[in-house]
Model the fold of this input.
Amino acid sequence: METNEFDLEAFLPYLLNQAAEVSSLAFQQVYKERYGMLRTEWRVLFHLGLYGRLTASEIGTRAKTHKTKISRAVHRLTDRRFVTRARNDQDRRVEHLTLTPQGQAAYADLREVARRYEAALVADLTEAQMSALRAALVKLAEAAPAPFT
Amino acid sequence: METNEFDLEAFLPYLLNQAAEVSSLAFQQVYKERYGMLRTEWRVLFHLGLYGRLTASEIGTRAKTHKTKISRAVHRLTDRRFVTRARNDQDRRVEHLTLTPQGQAAYADLREVARRYEAALVADLTEAQMSALRAALVKLAEAAPAPFT
DNA sequence: TTGTAATAGTTGTTTTTGTAACTAACAAGC
DNA sequence: GCTTGTTAGTTACAAAAACAACTATTACAA
Done:
């Protein structure tokens, strides 16, 4: 069956998805079990932890995530007192989001877990492989998806 | 806010997910619009195209996909006459799946699209970067997720 | 000032997924 | 033979995601 066909098992989007799924799994379990968070909630949390104060749409832009996903994540995070919202008086459409002390604590905790997790993940990659990998991923993530026919 | 904290924007699972999503998008559109397929259906199709005849669980193992997802994808593919099922007489629990001529045609078409798509995707990566990337992804995808505390 | 468009965010509905429980067929030990 | 366990695959129900339509507010131009 396999002549010298194009090798779909090495197809980049496929490999990327596999690697992404496998390498997210164990960490996902941590924020799920420890704080009952979903992926988007963790992303909102870490963006707020990193940047301090953002609006929902700023997070959406940075994390390339749709606004409805962000909206619902923020809802759950405020319900659980990880995040507080504050209306902007200059522009009352806008809400500024910040972490509560509890949110800060969760962020600090998960950041450390992430640090250790990543170290374990890349344990059998060389330094050179790692930096090549990162560079390539950044490039791929930023490239506008090629138009097609 | 950012001292010399661990940089979560460069967190490997995050980068992998972003790269995977962005780099799947345009191709996804092709199999969706052209054949009404979802991602798992496309994966089943390409595994059958590549290996000729497989059972649902063989595909599940190779593609690291849960059997319910495979089951539903196979259903839709048979409904649309891309795939046929045949019971194994030695073990009647098992069903062998193969592509219909229509499935073969879709496979051949999409494989060519994939080939060109990937070429466009990696256009600004060097050969060395590409092979390093592939190697790293394979390693990550195969590594059992590290246990955690 | 008022009408049109744009932006921030939410809500409702439909698809898809995840999880668990299920049926059917086989295997192996007693 | 029968019980117990395992494997292949399906189905049912709950959780999450995608998509579209919506409110509220602001911008801006006729």
